[in-house]
Amino acid sequence: MEDCIFCKILKGEIPCDKVYEDDRVLSFKDINPEAPVHVLIIPKKHISSINELKEDDEKLIGYIYTVAGKIAKQLGISEKGYRIVSNCGEDGGQTVGHIHFHFLAGRKLNWPPG
Ligand code: 5GP
Ligand code: ZN
Questions:
Q1: Is 32 within a domain?
Q2: Is 0.90 surpassed by the pTM of this model?
Q3: What's the number of domains the chain is made of?
Q4: Which of 15, 25, 35, 65 is the most buried (most CB within 10 A)?
């Protein structure tokens, strides 16, 4: 947890370009955007990956989707559309060990992903 980049962002030790924040969740622009809109949504609680989720976390993870809807509205892209992605583990492409949700929009996204 001490070495977790996203916990450092939460503590203000690493700056971020904030998009949304409340008591449970922080959202900020991805440093290496893959789309015109690429923000990350993270819970303030450190959970290293989907594999570590407990029953107690169900509300929090559901809440993140509610926040995603709010962010879409805030950015004016609810109607155009967007994609929420959470990578898990090496094959899933996860590089940061603090569960997070990519919010991607602003261009036609390919399916299936590479
Ligand atoms: P993952 O590869 O784990 O699914 O996603 C991690 C994401 O975090 C990547 O898209 C990467 O660009 C982003 N990222 C890594 N370090 C930082 C950082 O210090 N600040 C911000 N804003 N994004 C970061
Ligand atoms: Zn963390």
A1: yes
A2: yes
A3: 1
A4: 25
> What gap in Å lies between CA 19 and CA 27, rounded to an integer?
5
List of residues 6+ apart from 20 with CB closer than 8 A: 26, 27, 41, 67, 70, 71, 74
Output the domain CATH number for residue 41.
3.30.428.10
* Tally of residues, the chain: 114
* pLDDT at residue 1 is higher than 80: no
Q: List the domain range (segments joined by +) for residue 21.
A: 5-105
Q: Is residue 111 part of a domain?
A: no
How does pLDDT run across 71-111, given as a tens digit for each residue?
A: 999 999 999 999 999 999 999 999 999 999 999 999 999 99
